[in-house]
Amino acid sequence: MTETAGKSSARRGSRTTKGLTIERIHTTEGVHPYDEVTWEKRDVVQQNWKTGATIFEQRGVEFPDFWSLNASTIVTTKYFRGALDTPQRETGLKQLIDRVVLTYVKAGKDNGYFATDTDAEIFEHELTYALLHQIFSFNSPVWFNVGTKSPQQVSACFILSVDDSMDSILGWYKEEGFIFKGGSGAGLNLSRIRSSKELLSSGGTASGPVSFMRGADASAGTIKSGGATRRAAKMVVLDVDHPDIEEFVETKAKEEHKIRALRDAGFDMDLGGSDITSVQYQNANNSVRVNDEFMRAVDEGTDFGLKSRTDGSVIESVDARELMGKIAQAAWECADPGIQYDDTINDWHTNPESGRITASNPCSEYMSLDNSSCNLASLNLLKFLGDDDTFDAERFQKVAELVITAMDISICFADFPTEAIGDTTRDFRQLGIGYANLGALLMATGHGYDSDGGRALAASITSLLTGASYKRSAEMAGIVGPYAGYARNADAHKRVMRKHQAANDEIRTLHTMDRSIHQQATKAWDAVVKVGEKNGYRNAQASVLAPTGTIGFMMDCDTTGIEPDFSLVKFKKLVGGGSMQIVNLTIPRALKLLGYTEETSEAIVEYIADKGHVIDAPGLKPEHYEVFDTAMGQRAIAPMGHVRMMAAVQPFLSGAISKTVNLPESATVEEIADVYSQGWKLGLKALAVYRDNCKVGQPLSDGGSTAKGAKADAEAAAAGAAEKVIEYRPLRRRLPKRRASQTTSFAVGGAEGYLTSGTYEDGELGEIFLKFGKQGSTLAGLMDAFSIAISIALQHGVPLETYVEKFTNLRFEPAGMTDDPDVRMAQSIMDYVFRRLALDYLDFDTRSFMGIHTADERSRQLETGSYAPSSSDDDEDYDDESYSQTVATKETKPVAKEESSDNSGSGSASTREADATVHSSAELMEKLQGKASDAPMCMTCGTKMRPAGSCYVCEGCGSTSGCS
Description:
The protein has 30 helices and 26 strands. A hairpin with a 4-residue loop joins strand 13 and strand 14 (about 580-585).
């Protein structure tokens, strides 16, 4: 993909200055990416489901027709700049992408990255194409700031530094506040501050770091409540040998006891509750930085020394195993503290001569020098999985090289919150490329998340990602020079590259897919070592695995970061109100790959829609259950399954992994201690755990959780209360006495007939009648009975697409040619009738999923490669939807038709109306499985959030609880 300009000049006859030659990946010379897609205008109106209040409204925003309404809503509300209802407000995706991409291109030109102007243009088109088609996304600060008049902050992750002086401590408060104000997060290590067991120079006793944490926590809570775009995100780290380590470990656990007592006394202690501010330390994630010496002492059951901050002498000895027990006990009670493995982190450090790595960002994926920052970007893995179920490793590498180039260019023009952070970032140029949708990719390819095959595929992909990134970094170093701190750290940096390469050699592939990716990664690492030996490297670090919360929705990802699928059944809102549940569309693809027939797959999908899991699904082999394991629910992945997946990919990351290991409510303190111990032995850099229902300030602020209600009912039954049995039955929605109908004459294989369809006032199908000429009274009677049965079922709420899926492709005579231009061939009369009904009454997305298109759509596909009509086509009949509490409509679509489409839009017979009490996938999982989802309520739109790495993300508005 890259050559020096000397090679470029021979090929193009261009100038001979140095620079990158950019290869086309997706684009065509002379054609702008915008001209290859169909654009449409949508209205975005976002509401809080609790209050009904409109919290956002912008009409006529322009997006590609293949972007979901959820993606376009989140981008419109989060990333469009300019005041609403002013000419300065951005009104479409083109403006947003151009604002960002053109800034990158200009900076690339100004700083000598491109060999020729043609290369700069190709870079612009390829970057635009990849963003337009949701192949990757930059982190949120890029979309917030780049190309605006505001400071162009591009980093989401910051690490600060604090010393043992009051000036430094007060400076910490100030720096952290500015970072929170900009919507980012920061972490730092407080271990330099003297403990409360040591003396000050004046002779008094020091306050200790825990006391200063109170002030920082209050500052973070105040700035959050002052109107920042999301909750303040921060990480506080303390070394395990600090004399105040036990006080630090127990801080949040003690506050959790206080929260429970206040809750029981009637105070509102849910996250965001009116009384939660009365407790301390709730705005930070806490982590203990352990070293190998301590972990060996835990294994051996020996004592461990706590050391003075002033002279390093041991001032107290503690039982290491007992201290680990206290860490695990606190995590059992309130999920804090997590663990960071100091010696492992610094063994993979490329810049040890410039200082140790002492801390991380709030989500624990970025680990580097103090006073530094990192900008992130993530690739959408499903975009590289072809229709033939092969992963395009070569294209994946090219896109990774393109993205890492852009990320490095951004440092050239970026602004930073402090001078020290700016200097360190420009000197070391830390980047954090990563990916999203791993869980969906594994399921689509028939791999269990907790399986050797799944881990081999994940390891191979991660190795290729980092290898491609460092390869490009070495190539850029030959053009614009290595990072400023490279000369001092050259030996260490090259040593870490060889460690990555050796880890790649140890991957044991199991299938053709991961084998081809691993071969590509091996070539990339060979180039990294070879080119890096000559040029050095442009970047001190290249890769991390971030939560990908908001940007995951922007890319329409099913899963975030390294996470498995959250649940098999998703919740989505429909246009004009209403909602539905839909089985993850990755499941039918996985079932087909595993060899199941269409009929068996339909039965399995229907079972999943009803139960929310695959246990005892009809026809599904037990050995395939693992493919459909999820983060929560009946087939939840075991805690060590998460740890093993993290261990599989960690050797191929410059940084670490944002991820929480979920444990059941029944987990013991000893099990948490074992997870922490296994994380150290498996070579992780950091680990956090969460035991279900261990915190009060979590999901149930609305008091309406179905899972909570189910638990209360079970407790009441156990106490001898009479069990209340509620039987649910469908209600018949009768047609009005006078209703609109249409009659279609048709001929199938020479047999002539008439199809009459009647509709409700809103245009939804409610009845059909079939009449045949010259076929005899017996067939006529059967058709009458069939028509009545279908009509009554439709009026009781059976979705039309259920019948379409069941009766299309049904084979019997008469069959053959028809006189309908949209359905030229039919396998039977039933096949024709339900294809015709699908074309007349189902939205485009649903019937397109089933392969049913009009003649015009088939013609358009031959001409443009897309069946989808443009926004100006008269026959447009979409039913777009959102996962959010969003009402969003298209300009060209009648509102009445939109509101009538409650039961369609999925392309699956499993689609059904969602319960009125359900407002997100987290609540839907609770409804189906009677299991509480440990997640907070979104403070913006009131929806229950779901996990994304170490953070939480809202399906409704894209808000996150963390730093990405």
